[in-house]
Amino acid sequence: MSGETITRFAPSPTGFLHIGGARTALFNWLWARHCGGKMLLRIEDTDRSRNSDEAVAAILDGLTWLGVTWDGAPVSQYSRVERHREVAQELVRRGEAYYCYASPQELEDMREKARSEGRPPRYDGRWRDRDPAEAPAGVAGAIRIKAPKEGETLVADNVQGDVRFPNSDLDDFIILRSDGNPTYMLAVVVDDHDMGVTDIIRGDDHLTNAARQTVIYRAMGWDVPSMAHIPLIHGPDGAKLSKRHGALGAEAYRAMGFLPEALTNYLVRLGWSHGDDEIMSIDQMIEWFDIGDVNKGAARFDVKKLEALNAHYIRSSDDKYLTDALVSVLPEIEGGAFFAERLTDIRRAQLLQAMPGLKERARTLVDLADGARFIFSERPLEMEEKAEKILAEGGRDVLAKILPVLEGVADWSVEATENAVRDFADVNELKLGKVAQPLRSSLTGRTTSPGIFDVLSVLGKDESVGRIRDQIA
Predict the structure, then answer these.
(1) What residues are designated binding site for ATP?
(2) Could you give the 3-state DSSP secondary structure of residue 145?
(3) Which domains does the chain have, with CATH numbers?
(4) Catalytic pick from 113, 149, 240, 243?
């Protein structure tokens, strides 16, 4: 085996890049980068009935968005079928595999007999030592591996520890079906060997497969890669992760307004940690990550914790980066069409100007968009019920009095408008809130927004005065 660490991520293109797959890809990528090696990408697309080009595109897009890169071109497992057949034939020639001509009815009878005797349903090896000349005419046989009958197969796992499987439990499983198509078990081993994979990191639901695949490696005289079977992700209630918990695709989290670096930071902490560090840069993750430090127990996915982490990343992000991130996701977020249709260069500049105030109260990019709605709203504004109530209960009288004051402000800046409003409140013996609330209602149609002086500055004098006039009228 080469000295270079080579990992692989091998998704089946039957849907989106779900959150568990994203974490598996991330762990493979981090371990490869930590060791100065490579991560390869293999698309396990042998099930032609369930695979789609759209799913492949969604997986590649999800990985790219998360910043998880791969080395070389993605490998199609389906394109390697001839190589898989070649290895199956080689195993027969070596005496490590054989043709089995058991009929579907015979196999069903075997299963029934085992069940009636309280045994696990397994193939009974009836063609293991028979002469192929006894094969029924015109019947294409399947190829089965000659699994060892005695002893045990050891999987030395970097996460689970040494796991031992009695060979009596493995049976002579099929590696090439009678139609000439390889099974998953064979294809994975051949591909991992040919691609030079040294470290296999995948979900612990593959742990039993690891024993069977070890049998194939040994039958071919190949080195068995180092293995690490990571625990699955559960919901906050401890149950297997489902859609109600957040078992969605990467694109769903993008549409919910999560930043890729926040999701990556959250995923790396699901089952692995570095002391008490919660916030980690990519460089720190690469430096600190060790596959041997992954926990054995299932990690729990908590959307609330992800939101809190995302809020941190939003607050600490560069304003232009956030503006660009929000604009890029507008077509995907719920209600994003409202903003996308009204986006102009002027409004984009206003969005950037407002970002310092917007990001302080946002947990997601969706929150950012909602906070920025006042920029995209067009006159006359629709009033929320609470905002209308403030205006109706004396707010419009305040607006009528302060309008000429604001019209007289020459240098329209945060400082100038704040001085004008505060002076007005002092002269009229009003608390600042009694002036700010009607102003906020008239300028945004809402009772919550970034700081009112920021709002005045972002909208500019003409738009601000116009919106106030609309409400007085």
Answers:
(1) 243
(2) strand
(3) 79-230 (3.40.50.620), 250-375 (1.10.1160.10), 378-472 (1.10.10.350)
(4) 243
